[in-house]
Design brief:
With 157 residues, this protein is α+β, with helices and mostly antiparallel strands. Helix content is 19%, strand content 32%. Bound molecules: nickel (II) ion.
């Protein structure tokens, strides 16, 4: 496994629409492992493949630090409710902004073995599903920020 370089806003790769994954190859597995390692190393709760420069529909999420999720070709099937709160992105370092998202999200995807999975989340997990899946279509949360982007203090432990 290896830490990959995280692309930052302004990099055109973050604005592209990613391609569906057709099969899991050894390279795909390596990408997934690297994405998880890169996300944890950066203290993030989610990371999408285009953020490490790969235009594939793959995201990793872990909102608790002990529940890694791998979503291949994820699709939002259902949403409900609304939450408004702070959001940040590893590709927009040092910033945060207020974004309104659904409070409940149901997702269909494939896991790292291409087995179909269905996941549900509320609150932070629902927000992470929406944020990461947006990345796969070339969208950053900054497009949805209400008001101004704010500077955040570094919260390194
Ligand atoms: Ni992001």
């Amino acid at each position: 496994m290896a830490i990959r370089n995280i692309r930052v806003m302004g990099d055109p790769i973050l604005e592209k629409v990613c391609k569906e994954v057709k099969e899991i190859t050894p390279r795909t597995r390596e990408l997934i492992d690297d994405m998880l390692e890169t996300m944890y190393e950066a203290n993030g709760v989610g990371l999408a493949a285009p953020q490490v420069g790969v235009l594939k529909r793959i995201v990793v999420i872990d909102v608790t630090g002990e529940d890694p999720m791998v979503l291949v070709n994820p699709r939002i099937m259902e949403t409900s409710g609304e939450q408004t709160g702070g959001e940040g992105c590893l590709s927009v370092p040092g910033k945060s902004g207020i974004v309104t998202r659904p409070n409940y999200v149901k997702v269909k995807a494939y896991d790292r073995d291409m087995k179909p999975i269905e996941l549900e989340g509320t609150e932070l997990l629902a927000r992470a599903f929406c944020h990461e899946i947006d990345h796969l279509d070339g969208h950053l949360y900054v497009e949805k920020v209400e008001g101004e982007l704010a500077d955040v203090e570094d919260e390194e432990e």
